[in-house]
Design a protein that fits this description.
heterodimer; A: mainly alpha; MetI-like fold; 2 strands; B: alpha+beta; D-Maltodextrin-Binding Protein, domain 2; nine-stranded mixed β-sheet
Chain lengths: 300, 415
């Protein structure tokens, strides 16, 4: 082995150690655990594929399908709202002359608040009787629209998504702003000189030129939304109420691994099976993402 | 000279170390118990036992996994607050040898057999010292009842009549925390013991009847029909909202547990609270109270100071501990012979617990909640929310219960 290779290994070693310890080892461990029944203490019982059978077709089959569909719905809505609004707000922030910094800060501010705190704040704001949202609706004569936002099964998931959008929008605005600033000004000036309307400029120039950013962000959003847990837990708890109307794979994993209310069974093996299934869903898209990024860097 | 100084310092350090009190660490899901352990420490110190109690509480929803992971990793406290048996969580810790039986270490002579059954494992040994008995039922604001000339209802229809009168007078009859699935499960269970009665529940446990029985469906209907008397938007409320609303007289009644009393009094010292068992649906039937042992103080195998931890447990098994516990938390201690604080409500609830506790139950303390899918987590909590939200009918709720529990509970499989 040449000295150069040795040095490369030496520099890679710290990162590799961390990666193996915190990513590879837990993953392999979870994978092995998914074939066992284990309440978190004592001996493990090998059950083969029983945990996967329970999760996909057995006692947790309907909950898994329900949570999976919620994840898909979550992804679609969050993608439309966060990327759509993020893109439009970024255009607005790039275009304005006065107060740019102020608006940028305001939009990004919720992003620095922890999810658990966001959950607490919005739980208070959305309280049916004393919450700010219903109070405002009552005061402006729209009391008929006041709802138990987090308790109505028809609204709860949308409410969670709305809070998620409020929290994360700033990040997407920031990324799109950077992407828009990369577009040469001459292109836009030429378009306006040729008489293009704002709509045309957005749809024919800005959108196509920021499309790679859209692609990257939507793949990242797919991965993130299929791992979503914290905001649902903070707003609705591990039970993902009302009656699982906000349940996602993350909360299902939590319930199966750590048990439900009272004395009910905790089964790390069952939880690990859910985690492996999440991985099976997310992994192909992650590979697509890696491929796109790799291809782009080769073309650049 | 240097040698003398060195040895003197070493001796001093040794003496200080020997004199330092032994720290016993206790983990719990009950943050309200912190003053109890301060008081216990003071009392034990006064008895010449040099102990320091390090009490730590965790979020109830995260507590069990924290305990499990710590003990499995060879760490954790000397004593844990342990969930009652039968229950997979505590059983798993016992099976793994992480909890130590206390039969030959602590005298349990001050406890009733019914209470001790909740800490008795299948090996016949006892794993812990029970600390509290909980009673759930309907708590009402006596001043509101008095203002509208209402009497404690003897039947379900009288309860509905009371609610109707309150509603007509602009008072919210019930405050129900619909967002807290566990509280709805509790509401169903406390109503069930009176409306169905212990015999029906025993038949259910024996497999003589099942959840599709018209009696169970009828119970679901009774609860569903009570919805018009709940506060507006009740599906979005938590138990914190309940505590505040009830303490400040914004609702006349709550389906809750006696553990709430301390908090109501803390929020509003002037609140005048009464208690009654959920009335049965027939004037000739008797009401029953849902009483359960809350948990126990269990000795862990990872205890670093086992002898001192045993002394703490020995103290916790005495009526004096019960007196401190009741005084500090306004909860009912599990140990017999404790002096209760002069609070009429507690005396009343204690009497009910002693005389009208249902011998058969289907919520906490029941075998039906010990496996997955659990009647508690997977049926009553989501099922009540679904029924209240109008997503399923009382009949569908019954079918949901039968389908889920018959997956693993053998007596119900044949039905």
């Amino acid at each position: 082995m040449s000295i150069k290779k040795k040095y490369i290994l030496l520099f890679v070693l710290p990162a590799l150690t961390l990666y193996v310890t915190f990513v590879i080892y837990p993953f392999i461990y979870s994978f092995i655990l998914s074939f066992y029944r284990w309440p978190g203490a004592g001996a493990r019982t090998f059950v083969g594929l029983q945990n996967f059978k329970d999760v996909l077709f057995g006692s947790f089959g309907s909950e898994f399908r329900n949570a999976f569909l919620h994840n898909i719905y979550y992804f679609i809505l969050v993608t439309i709202l966060e990327l759509g609004l993020g893109f439009l707000l970024a255009i607005f922030l790039v275009s304005i002359v006065k107060g740019k910094r102020f608006f940028q800060m305001m939009v990004y501010l919720p992003n620095i608040i922890s999810m658990i705190l966001v959950g607490f704040i919005w739980s208070m704001m959305l309280n049916p009787q004393i919450g700010l949202v219903n109070q405002i609706l009552n005061h402006i004569g729209l009391g008929v629209l006041a709802r138990p936002w987090l308790g109505d099964p028809n609204l709860a998931l949308n409410t969670v998504i709305a809070v998620n959008v409020w929290r994360n929008l700033g990040f997407y605005v920031l990324v799109f702003t950077a992407s828009l600033l990369d577009i040469p000004r001459e292109l836009l000036e030429a378009a306006y000189i040729d008489g293009a309307s704002n709509f045309k400029v957005i749809t024919k120039i800005l959108f196509p030129l920021t499309l790679p950013t859209f692609q990257t962000l939507s793949i990242l959003l797919f991965i993130w939304t299929f791992n979503v847990f914290d905001i649902v837990y903070a707003l609705e708890g591990a039970q993902a109420g009302p009656f699982r109307s906000t349940d996602v794979l993350g909360t299902l994993f939590y319930r199966t691994a750590f048990g439900g209310l009272g004395s009910s069974r905790a089964d790390f093996g069952l939880g690990a099976a859910v985690a492996v299934l999440i991985f099976v869903v997310v992994m192909p898209l992650s590979l697509v993402y890696a491929y796109i990024v790799d291809r782009r860097s080769r073309n650049a | 000279m240097r040698r003398v100084i060195f040895f003197s310092a070493l001796m001093a350090l040794l003496i200080v170390t020997m004199m330092a009190s032994t720290t016993v660490q206790i983990w719990s899901w009950r943050s309200q118990d912190a003053p109890v352990w301060k008081e216990v420490q003071k009392e034990m110190n006064a008895q010449g036992i040099d102990v320091k109690i390090d009490f730590r509480s965790f979020l109830p929803t995260e507590y069990d996994s924290k305990v499990q992971i710590a003990l499995q990793g060879g760490k954790g406290p000397d004593i844990i607050y342990s969930r009652r048996l039968p229950g997979q969580r505590t059983q798993a810790l016992i099976d793994a040898g992480l909890l130590i039986p206390i039969d030959d270490k602590v005298s349990l002579s001050h406890f009733n057999t019914s209470v001790l059954n909740f800490i008795k494992a299948s090996d016949g040994k006892h794993y812990g010292v029970p600390f509290a008995v909980q009673v759930v039922g309907i708590f009402y604001n006596k001043d509101i009842y008095k203002k509208y000339g209402l009497k404690v209802p003897k039947t379900w229809s009288e309860l509905v009549k009371n609610a109707e009168i309150l509603k007509k007078n602009g008072v919210t009859p019930f405050f129900v925390p619909g967002k807290a699935g566990w509280a709805l499960a509790m509401q169903h269970a406390m109503t069930g013991v009176s409306v169905l009665g212990p015999c029906w529940i025993k038949n259910l446990l024996d497999g003589q009847t099942n959840f599709l029985d018209p009696a169970w469906v009828h119970l679901n209907k009774l609860l569903n029909d009570l919805k018009p008397y709940y506060q507006k938007g009740f599906m979005g409320n938590t138990t914190d909202d309940l505590n505040a609303a009830f303490a400040f007289g914004q609702a006349a009644m709550v389906f809750y547990g006696v553990w709430g009393y301390g908090q109501w009094k803390e929020l509003n010292p002037n609140i005048n609270v009464g208690y009654f068992m959920v009335p049965p649906d027939c004037e000739y039937a008797q009401p029953w109270a849902y009483v359960f042992m809350d948990g126990s103080l269990a000795l862990t195998s990872n205890s670093k100071h086992e002898n001192m931890a045993i002394k703490v447990l020995q103290f916790a098994a005495t009526p004096r501990f019960g007196t401190i516990f009741a005084k500090e938390t306004l909860n009912i201690p599990a140990v017999k012979g404790a002096t209760m604080p002069n609070v009429p409500l507690l005396q009343e609830v204690l009497k009910v617990a002693e005389e009208h506790a249902s011998p058969y139950v289907y919520w906490v303390g029941s075998v039906l909640t010990s496996h997955s899918p659990s009647l508690y987590t997977d049926v009553l909590s989501p099922g009540m929310q679904a029924m209240y939200a109008g997503k399923i009918t009382p009949e569908e709720f019954a079918k949901m219960a039968q389908d889920k529990i018959s997956q693993w509970y053998k007596p119900l499989m044949k039905k």
